[in-house]
Design a protein that fits this description.
mainly alpha, elongated, 2 strands, two-stranded antiparallel ribbon
Length: about 200
Amino acid sequence: MQQTAASHAQRSWPGHRRRSATALRDNGLRFSPVTIALHWLVAALVLSIIVIESIGLLRPEPSLVRLENLLTALLLPISVYRFWARVTSYHPLPLGTPNPVEVIVSRSVAIGLALAMVLLPIAAWLCKSAADIAIELPGGYVIPALMAPSPSAAGVLRVLFDVGGAAFLLGLALHLFGALKNHFVLKNDVLKRMLGKHVEL
């Protein structure tokens, strides 16, 4: 009984709560479980959106458009949190003795991708609103427009969206190249760390 009370008191101690909260944030040694889970969730959402968009170019279907709109709507709030967590937490140190230039490039690309996943859904939302295209979701729901229809604004926003999308795909290719290089060429544990494994620096 006394042991149970002592354990409860220890768990209720403010320091314990602070440690629990910090365990959910990245630090210099590891990614948090939240970061790892959201990383793979976002990867699945982005891959699904790219696949649906590619299929839609060959065989346009309203049901695919509604599904893509739903996935994009889910991606936005998750991406906002991920970007905030990225810029307010310590990023884990690189493994081994990497080239400093490569570290700067890889971290810049990662931050750029995180920001793009916030801006691109908003740009798509604005673009469709300006073009007076309803953003329909499965089940008959419609996302409200962000702005009044404007053909001139729709043209500008479409160009910006296309440029941002191309830059995002380029950054994504660099990100995948870096991950594959670390795993297959440098043979370090970067990929395993993103799967939740504790690794030595």
